[in-house]
Predict the 3D structure of the following.
Amino acid sequence: MIETVANRLLLSIPVLFGVLILGFALVTLAPGDPARVMAGPAAPPEVVAQIRDRMGLDDPVVVQFLRYLGRVAEGDLGRSLISNRTVTAELGAAIVPTVELMVACLVWSIPLGIAMGTLAAVWRGSIVDRIIMTISVAGVSLPIFFICLVLIQVVGVQWRLLPFIGRGGPLWTVEGLRHIALPALSLGLIFIGPVARMTRSSVLEVLRLDHVRTARAKGLSERRVILRHGLRNALIPVVTLIGLQAGYLLGGAVVTETIFSYPGIGRLAVGAILSSDFPLAQGAILVLALAFILINLIVDVLYALLDPRVQRR
Amino acid sequence: MAPDAPLLAVEDLKVHFAVEGRRYRAVDGVSFAVDRGRTLGVVGESGCGKSVTSLAIMRLVSQPPGIYAGGRIVFGGTDLLALPEGRMRALRGGRIGMIFQEPMTSLNPVYTCGDQIVESLRVHSGLSRRAARARAVELLDLVRLPSPAKRADDYPHQLSGGQRQRVMIALALANSPDLLIADEPTTALDVTIQAQILELMKDLQERTGTAILLITHDLGVVAETCDEIVVMYAGTIVERAPTQALFADPQHPYTIGLMAAVPRIDVEAERLATIEGSVPPPWAELRGCRFAGRCPLADERCRREPPPLRPLATGHDVACWYAPIERRAA
């Protein structure tokens, strides 16, 4: 197990390096001049040139990149051009809300998706199956911004049930929960569809296998056969899917946070890019990429836990 | 239940499958009995209904598409087909154990071998986890797996095919069943391993007194292990006889053909003997003898009227209008 984790960690080093290059390139090659942003639109060209010189923006790109690498290694991601706070401080403040949003989203959508998929598989062809599959197709096909807007309009504006702007506090407080409910609901809805569909087909496939017949021949109850010998084995591809969906989840978080004005990494990244706050944008991209790597690491560990054949390979 | 009644009596069993509006008569009026401590072999080629028969005894034929279209399966005095699911479940893996053909896929890859035996023990006997675990190791020792305590913690993919089949046998015997159904238990194994597994089953039968229903297409396997043999063809029984009598004097043209098709090392032959033609499709509405299309003796009557299974003086039951057939006359 430790070996698996260590292997995956080693494998993520090149990925991380790639992310650093991409993040740097995106920001360096993008139109717009950081020095101009810092100096403000009214500043005379000499001042801008001075800032360019101080920031080393006239040096060759390779030199700039190496300097950037060196700073990242020291944990210095620079300062926001807009707020002048350190990027690490800005990111640090935004990470907790985003992690809370992820947790609040996954904690209901994954179990529900798995339960829906299993029920659909067990009652295949029935009305229950059809209803569940319709819901999940809708979940897959509706764009997330649309779901967000509908929820805001109906639950927030018309019914006045839940707040839909900002964060109310930590997740364990009532206000925190009330504020996170709608973003977590929107984000989770896009997740349920794929999980339910994958679970359904995977359970159907596993239930046809020989070892399930053995389980029945042992005299186990149908519930035990399905949960312990069907679903348990069927979860292996579902976990893989969840890892693959992590990208959608992070992308969805960017949209959701922006729409709900939720102070997380996603909104921070959008804000930074729109205002040409290059250091902050770079930092946010780095954190999102790290999150992606981390989610996939967790998935790999889960995979090894679920399937003993993986561990020993 | 009368003291001399057989442990298992299958009476005129009919199992059909309804698929896309067609009715497949997989098992169509099969009767046989297994006595305590005895071994009955069911022989026939692929698709003759032998596996469906064995699954039907466990009531594991999935419905739909399966239909129990008639007959009774009397086990220990009760008709299994009339039993509520809860009581049937207590019998499965309890008084009736089952071994399947594919040792490579019949065990769940995500649980250790020990856990899978423990599960069966605990469901049926309510043993504590520790007691069940100790019993599982005992069972693995009984089926002669070397270092059973270690093997109990192994996952199926860490064992060879023969070892896995031993685990399956341990699993099937976990709750000391009265009847062990073995559906092609050696087909997927190497010849040397086959012999070991058959010997193990015979040995365990002597020790535990379990009756065995052995399903196979391999005449060599039944010759070595069975007391009595039932030959199936296209969902029906064509011949039933004690092993010795069947091999010495096969009476149904199909059985004779089967035996002739076994390659012999002491007879020179240019080509291996085969039975002409192929099994009729299971949806075919056959009025007469199902073997008529391939039988060298078949005449008008064979195609018109199905021959009943009737006893001959030699201890055989044969479903053929021409029986008794003078040996090797065909």
User: Anything to note?
Assistant: Chain A has two domains: 2-73, 87-311. The mean pLDDT of chain A is 87. The radius of gyration of chain A is 24 Å.
